[in-house]
Design a protein that fits this description.
single chain, alpha+beta, 4-stranded mixed beta sheet, 2 helices, globular
Length: 95
Amino acid sequence: MGKARSPRSPRSASPAADSRSRFPTLEHFVLHGNGQISVGEIGPIQCAAVASDDHNMLVALQRRKGETLMQLLQRLDAALLRALEYDEFTDEING
């Protein structure tokens, strides 16, 4: 994903208060964290899910064979949590 970033201490990416959400990290990221997500076709990739903030792409996933959209979003939520909490970035699109 290009840029090396300095480590930061873990922080809460999603409030525990709303445990009703199926995707609490995505919800908090989009509604309160100045982030955006995109799901759909990206170039030759038929279905991808990407989460980015104002400066960087944090997660880029390709839909796996047989994977449902809900499963892809669950993986995006989990990968985004790892990116926000531990600076562990996932990029299945660019290698």
